[in-house]
Prior knowledge:
alpha+beta, 14-stranded antiparallel beta sheet, five-stranded antiparallel beta sheet, 10 helices
Amino acid sequence: MEIRRIFTICLVFVVLVCLTHSSSAGSQDVSDDTEYLAVFMEGKKVGHAIQSRVVSDGQVTTSEEVSITVSRMGVSMTMEMKEISIETTAGKPLAFEAEQKLGAMVMKMTGKVDDQGKVSLTTTSMGAQQKSTLEWPEGAVLAEGLRLLGLNKGLEEGTHYFAKIFSPGILQAVHAQVRIGPRQNVDLLGRVVPLRKVTTTLNMPGAGEIVSTSYVDDELRVQKSLMPIAGIQVEMVACAREFAMGRNDVLEMIDKMFLASPEPLENLAEARSITYYLAPAQDIPEVTIPSTDNQRVQQRGNGRMTVTVEPVAARSGIQFPYRGRDQAILDALKPTRFLQSDHEQVIALARRAVGETQDAAEAAGKIEAFVGDYIENRSLSVGYASAAEVAASRQGDCSEFSVLTAAMCRAVGIPAQVVVGVAYVSDFGGHQGFGGHAWTQAYVGGRWIGLDASFKGGGRGGYDAGHIALAVGDGEPGDFFNLAAALGQFKIERVLVRKR
């Protein structure tokens, strides 16, 4: 089961980094300022964040580092992320770096922004480099640009403004709305300090919202922030270096992973469809859940909705590779930094799995079954590996199954995407219900069919109506934003199972 992505990628890089971008102070010609923060989840210290800002030779270099350690069923895992942004003193983006160490996976991205707004990007993983280009999002800012915007808007109560923040970790811009609140006395690990309340709402197009509350000093340095993410309270507090870098507590994630089911779900392979009646878990904005070929979403008002999951059957007789002209489908054939469908070993595995078949549905099924058997070590200690890394290591959990399945499908010309959401399990570490999960969908004969190599290899049978999709994409970190925004925000009041 998969949930740590929420905290490692989406939470840490989209939320923590975005909120600490404005925390560096000062506007001197030459400065070197470093701050330390302790990271808490559910009241337990699980890591630290370090931010530095250096001004030299007309450029500002801002560095953000985050390290978090959590446990799953007694298996400890540390995830480390670092972002560096380089800008002019006026906030013009020049370059950026992002390094992610997520268990077995280490990936580094470097980008340079030219005067025409083109970004030359280099991604390094497993010693191999991928070069690509992308357009700088119009109006997006990095750390210094956001700091200057905050200084310009000021801290008068009632002030509100919008910003588009580019995150090097997810290579996307996140929309933010900032509202300045009153001054309050805030407890900072025993110190009570008067600080200004700032509410920030982060949003990505097509995904949900994450709302945080921060408390800043008069120089816009964040001293404390609170974020309810996936039903878990996340807190960052400015503190001395010794405490921030000191010993962490053990937070067992399994207890936080599951969404209760109103009743046990048995023999899911026999279910033609399942309708889930969802209700908001608290007074929150409407949760965003996508409609797909396999699930229909109907709003019922007041945040309530029904999600009917009815897996579509793949049509036989469809040849591959895909030769259509639909650009969205063609995009699902391209190699990406996490789905390296052009990697030599991934291609070899795909050809080995498919064999001589010419039928796309049969080929997709063969890849699903192959990956289910190929990954030998269902390790809970893997952070977030790319398809090429999984092909080499043969270990991981559901996310590793899903990225390898998607990349192998793309390698033989079958469009494929990674899906994240929740899936029903009758027993996982003594827990029953819906847990965070990742699987794959492949485009065959005009429809997206579900594939779940993790469940297939575990004897469940693969994709079924016990899956609720929350986001679909290329396995990129930004694709997990809606998972972070939605999990913990709704509950399942009732289920209606229709048998075949």
